[in-house]
Structures are given as C-alpha cells and as structure tokens.
Amino acid sequence: MIKKLAIATVFFALTVSPHNAKAQFGFGIVYDPTNYGNAVLRYYELMSQLQQLQATYAQVLNQYNLALSMTKNLPNMATRYATSWAPWRYASARDVYGNTTTWIGGVNTGLPSTVLAGYQSATNALQPYNPSDISAMQAPIRQQVESQYGSVELADGANQDAMETIGAIRTNASSTTNSISNIQNDSLSDDPSLNTEVSVLNKVNATNVLALQNAQDTNKLLVSILEQQTINAKQFRDAQTEAINDDISRRASVVPMNNQLSATFGSQLANYRLP
C-alpha cells in the first residue's frame, strides 16, 4: 500500500506541476497561480501521509517481529528440564499369624469395610464392662473407668479414619502421577498446537487444580495427625487428673486416719499394765 501511495504521489506531482500552457487560439501562455498553490499543498499533504504510513509500517513490523520472537520455544526442553520422582510405595508386612493382611489391604485401598476388618484383626478387642460391675463402682472410680474406656474408643475411630485417608491417597496416586507426567510432557513439548496462548493457559489451570487436590490430601493427613495428637493429649490429661485426684483423696484421708490411730494408740498405752 505504501508503494502504491508513493507512486501516486509522484504521478500527481508530475501532472499538477506548474507548466506553461497555450492560450486559447494559440495567443500567449496562461499561468494559474491558484491551481499551482493548491497542487503544491496537496503534494506536501501526500508526502506527510506517506511518512506517517512509513512510520506506522515500521511500528507494525517491529511488533510483528517481537511477537514472532516470543512464540519461539527453547530447544531440547525435554532434555534440559525433564525430571523423574520416586514412585509411590504401598504398605507391606509379614503375616505370620494371619492378622496383618487385611490391615495392609485397608491402608492400600481405603475401603471402609476393609479398614474396619483389618483394624479389628490386628488389634486387641475392647471388651465391655459388666453393667452390674459399673453400677457397683463409686462415682469417682466409675468416671475414671468410663473416661479411659472412651479414650480407647476415640483412638480406634481416629486410627481407622487415618487408615482410610492413607488408603484413598494411595489409590489415587497412580492417576495423580499420570496427570503430572502429562502436564510435564505437554509443557516440554515442541508441538505448536500445545504452545498456543490458550493451550498454555489450559496447562497452567490444570497444574493449579492438581496442586489444589494435592494440598487437600495434605490437609486430610494433617487433620488425621492432629486428631490422634488430640486423643493422646486427652489420655495424658486423664492420667494426670487421676493422679491428682488420688493425691487429693489420700491427703483428705490422712488426717482422720492419723487422729484415729493416735487416739487408739494413746488409750492402749494408758490402759497397758505389765504382766
């Protein structure tokens, strides 16, 4: 377009440039200064437009070259940046007495029924107290017994929840690893269709979603650990409370017992006679 405008400008300048013209009937030469002035002004206007177009063309060309350079990929990205990571390890153990296989199945799959069966087979069964024995206990003793019993029940629930979480994460580990591998391969690929602006944004979004999922799994494990620590803290508190209560009870009974012993011992001395 710029070349066409330049040719048109030169042609216009040649056709409208001042020249002598023969008058009507060939008598004398006619010179019109108005037309000449307008032609000169038009010429400079066209030259100004031509310069503007040239500047615009240079700017567009620079932008195009910049955009073209930004679309180029780093060479051999797979060789330069591809990494590998340690594979997921699944739980395993010997089963000499046949009570660990189901546990291993639970922590590797996260299935609630398998976790429950495995936990029950690998732990000592918690037997209930006889109702008559519970009712016959004094109130402080009964409270201590029931609190200790509840701590074991809470620990059982927290342990089974942790087993389910661990098993679910291990079950999804294979698909998560495949997703990470796909993102890595697509990110390091030289295929132009995988490096368009939309493709790059899609890969970024997929990476963010995967990171959120992994963070959620991490939070689940942290919650399980915190739950177990809370139960351990409860058991420690129960033990401390029981020791303090025993000390309070002992101190409360020492004075009356000493008084009784002293009174009995004094009377025995007063009434003692040598044989």
Secondary structure layout:
Blueprint: H1 2-16, E1 21-22, E2 29-30, H2 33-70, H3 77-81, H4 101-109, H5 112-122, H6 131-136, H7 139-187, H8 197-270
First-residue to last-residue Cα separation: 146 Å
Series of H and E elements? HEEHHHHHHH
Number of domains: 2
Tally of extended strands? Answer: 2
Secondary-structure-derived class:
mainly alpha
Largest sheet: 2 strands, antiparallel
- The percent of residues in helical segments reads over 70%
Strand content: under 5%
Principal-axis shape equals: elongated
Low-confidence stretches: 10-14, 16-25
- Oligomer state of the chains in this structure: single chain
Structure explained in plain terms:
This protein has two domains: 2-72; 99-270, no CATH class. It contains eight helices and two strands, in the order H-E-E-H-H-H-H-H-H-H. It has helices at residues 2-16, 33-70, 77-81, 101-109, 112-122, 131-136, 139-187, 197-270, and strands spanning 21-22, 29-30. The chain has a two-stranded antiparallel ribbon. A hairpin with a 6-residue loop joins strand 1 and strand 2 (29-30). The model is unreliable at 10-14 and 16-25 (pLDDT under 50).
